[in-house]
Amino acid sequence: MYQTVIILDFGGQYKELIARRVRELGVYSEIWPCDTPLEKIRAANPIGVIFTGGPDNVYAPDAPACDRGVFELGVPVLGICYGMQFMCHSLGGQVSPCDKSEYGVVDTRLTGESRFFGDLDKAQRVLMSHTDYVSAAPEGFIVTAQTSLCPAAAMECPQRNLYAVQFHPEVENTVNGKPMLRRFLYEICGATGDYNMNDYLEREMEAVRAQVGDKRVLLGLSGGVDSSVCAALLSRAIPGRLTCIYIDHGFMRKNETEEVRAAFAGRALDLRIIDASEQFLKALEGVTDPEEKRKRIGREFVRAFEKAARDCGNPSFLAQGTIYPDVVESGSKNKSAVIKSHHNVGGLPKDMSFEGVVEPLRGLFKDEVRALGRMLGLPKTLVERQPFPGPGLAIRVIGEVTCERLHILREADAIVREEIRRSRVKADQYFCVLTNVRSVGVMGDFRTYDYTLAIRAVRTNDFMTCEYARLPHTLLSRMSTRITNEVQGVNRVVYDITGKPPATIEWE
Length: 508
Ligand code: XMP
Description:
alpha/beta, globular, binds xanthosine-5'-monophosphate
């Protein structure tokens, strides 16, 4: 196994960012709940442990905590934000509420010899976000950085290999965050940098071969990044023994099915493209409620998939493109309200029986999956594809889904995607929504009574929140002109200028 850094999760929003930074630096990392038993941590033999931040106060009755034995493992520990306060409190120091909370990028002064900072400049710009601070460091610790509001912005006890920072070295706003983490990993934890995608690929292919022996594997291929990379990996690991089922529910974007077919042509897999569009359209007849649409599509999908699986002789193993954030999420205790019932190709029939599940991307973050996809020779269109909801265009046609309305949306959407891509403006996801509003217009000398189409383009890092993208007016008017000229049935185009919250990214 790789040298591993364990990230103990105290509830901070940047936990995945920390794990990704560590991996980018060539060291494998995993996120574990902070109350993971000490024995499990010891057994993993980590080269270092990092505590994340978190929203709590260390003195609160249910404040998240880890086994204090972590400090005695003899492994370097880095506490970040709440992690620093937890370390301080656990080891006999004092944490107090700030007179004035400190949020944003601030100047920090390094105050002397520090194993953590090494020979970095004394003046550093760092991102702070805290309402409590270390008012008295534990015995044996020295304070190594200060800001005007925070007398202990960093502290360390090199004899015990314990280090802590009040700021966030994992975010880009902390200008030298990466060198700091690099130093922690390589100088303090003794990392050798043994983690890279080439190696990951070799190891996973070996693991898949060992798991499935000479049996056959079934994969639901959606054309999304994860299932596509999974298919490419498996076709290389077990050539000729992978069957991929691509259910065309008829709600795909323009040319999408053909692009998938082309991307996998010539690979050692059996790709079955099932045209189930009639079945799906029929299931949505007369349905206008968004949740009902999602549920019916999910149900139809299971049916179509089961049939296709039977038709290819029910392979023994089911492959899924599960990735690491899904694994971390399902292990987290936080339960949130259902806003939308997501339909994913991953959410397959519960009562189909398989000998086992193959998930070769389970250890990877999205950017690592993309890197792997590039290594496996998948085209850019697939590897860099924006998220596309499982129910497809059906949840972008507001109101009843019909062939005609899907056609209008598909054509308009192709124009919007082409124009935005070509303009190179920054937007992380962009598409069209066909509303159920019709309004009066004039074309030539005639009155029209056609649909209003909405363009949506957003900036986001994690798709949990977003801002609308500030598209230039020249681009907006070009799209509007093209759509009203080229797509019959639309006489009005609007731009959605809402963030999430309060809106969601998709309209349904
Ligand atoms: P919302 O609309 O919830 O979308 O703000 C957040 C992100 O998730 C995508 N999305 C889905 N992805 N199955 C998926 O795989 C779904 O049912 C689904 N619904 C929304 C959406 O495109 C955005 O990127």
